[in-house]
Design a protein that fits this description.
This protein has 2 helices and 11 strands, in the order H-E-E-E-E-E-E-E-E-E-E-E-H. By secondary structure, the chain is an alpha+beta fold. Strands 3-2-1-4-5 form a 5-stranded antiparallel sheet, with no helix packed on it. Strands 6-7-8-10-9 form a 5-stranded mixed barrel. Helix 1 runs antiparallel to helix 2. The protein is flat. The two termini are about 20 Å apart. About 15% of the residues have low confidence.
Length: about 220
């Protein structure tokens, strides 16, 4: 009997740990080709509605916008404006703009050097990878793949973002620069964590009550 109770108790704890591990995993699947950075000059904009997705063209790239994602009041997204857009945890682009900076930082995973006449590219890894074009003629001497690096960036005549220089290693302190937007949490959701704690606590309480009942019966207590 005690063996059966112990197995049930262990099973409850195993379920709680499994929920914790699932909650800690990323909620998106990384595609083989990293997507473009959702920043640029607005060329066309169709706001999403509560039930239908919208779209936005930033420079030469068009992004789908998640249905129901336009805030109230709406973000200042108008044709001709330079904007960067937020994403949710699933990597979906939202109709919500945030501050555009002039420096971007992140772990550098790939570099294609620019030539005098052809653009290059860098790939930065946050919770999701992003490819950013490098302006022709730009030298990124000193930028090392595998390091966390900062780059200056701006926008070309087409309205696309482009790297214009290498700043240096990313400081450990928080600098006044724009980080790549985070699209996933590194830990479990608070609501999921609360559920895990509640399940574990209930399992512990039930186990303790059963053990006390067994001990009382073994001692002949009424």
């Amino acid at each position: 009997m005690r063996t059966m109770r112990a197995r049930r108790f262990a099973g409850a704890w195993a379920a709680a740990v499994m929920l914790l591990l699932i909650g800690a995993a990323p909620v998106y699947a990384q595609t083989a080709t990293p997507p473009a950075l959702a920043c640029g000059r607005v060329v066309a904009y169709t706001p999403p509605t509560a039930g239908a997705a919208g779209s936005i063209t930033l420079g030469t790239t068009t992004f789908a916008l998640k249905a129901g994602s336009e805030p109230n009041p709406p973000s200042p997204i108008v044709v001709g404006a330079i904007v960067c857009l937020d994403e949710n945890q699933a990597g979906e682009i939202l109709a919500k703009a945030h501050l555009v900076g002039d420096t971007i930082c992140g772990p550098l995973t790939a570099v294609t050097p620019a030539s005098a006449s052809a653009a290059g590219s860098i790939t930065l890894q946050s919770n999701r990878q992003r490819i950013i074009s490098v302006r022709p003629g730009t030298s990124l001497a000193g930028a090392q793949v595998g390091s966390s690096a900062c780059f200056t960036y701006g926008f070309n005549s087409a309205g696309d973002p482009e790297v214009r220089g290498f700043v240096g290693a990313q400081p450990t302190a928080s600098p006044p620069v724009r980080q790549l937007p985070s699209t996933s949490t590194n830990g479990p959701d608070p609501a999921r964590l609360a559920l895990i704690v509640a399940v574990a606590a209930a399992a512990t309480a039930a186990y303790v009550v059963r053990r006390r009942g067994f001990a009382r019966r073994a001692q002949g207590a009424p």
